[in-house]
GNAT family N-acetyltransferase (Psychrobacillus mangrovi), 236 residues
Amino acid sequence: MRLFNIIKNNAYWLVDQIKIEGKSEEEYKEEFTKLLKEYEEQKIEYLSLLMEEDFENWLLAKGFRRISVIHEYTKALEKEQLNESDFIFHALSEGSMTDEEFADAYELCRSGSANKNIPQPIEQIMAALSQELGDNWRSHCYYFLKDNELVGISIPYIEMGTTDEGRMFYFGIVPSMRGLGLGAEIHKITLYLLKKMNANTYVGSTDESNEHMINIFKKNDCVIRNKKGIYRIDKD
C-alpha cells in the first residue's frame, strides 16, 4: 500500500503523504527514506513534500527546510448542481483560447497569491499538466468569463490512484476580481464539474495564510480534514 503520492519529472518531485489509519511513524520514515535515496541518486533539482508536522524535526535533520503549512479541506459531492449564473465558462479543449493564452491567464491568477510555497515557472506548470493529466489535459482546464472579462481559472481532475477523489490542479481568481465573492461561485461550479467526472469526494488545500481560499472552502461547506507542513530540499 502506497504511503505517498509522487509526481516525478526531470526537474522536480512533488510528494504528498497519504494518511492511512494503522500505519506507524516508523513505516512512513522507512518508505520515505527509500524515496529520498532514489531522489538523491537521480540528482533531481528539488523535492517538495507535504507531510504531517510530527515529522518536522526528522525532516529538518535530513536537510529539508520548512516553507509553510497547508490546510486540507474535504466535501462529499452528493448534491452538486449547476445553478443559474452570470458566468460563461469554457474548457481549453474547445479551442477558443490558445495554450499560450491559458498560460498567461494562469500566471495572472497566481500573481499576488498569499501562498508561501515557492512558485514553479509557468513553463514547468504547463508541461506538468500534460504529464499529470494525460493527453486530454486541455479538457480539464477551464476559464471563467463575466461580461467578456476573465475572472478566473480552475483545473479539476480525479486524483491519481483513485477513481472518485476530486481535486483541483489549480484554482485562482485574477487580482482585480478578488474580494467580490466571485471565487466562491467559480469554486462551486468546479465542484459540479468534478461531480460530472464521477468524483464522490473533493479534497482541496491551501496555505494557512490564504484566508480568502479558506473562506471559499467554508462557504461551499467543505470541512477541514488535515494540516500538513510544506518542506523542500534542493540538490546540493
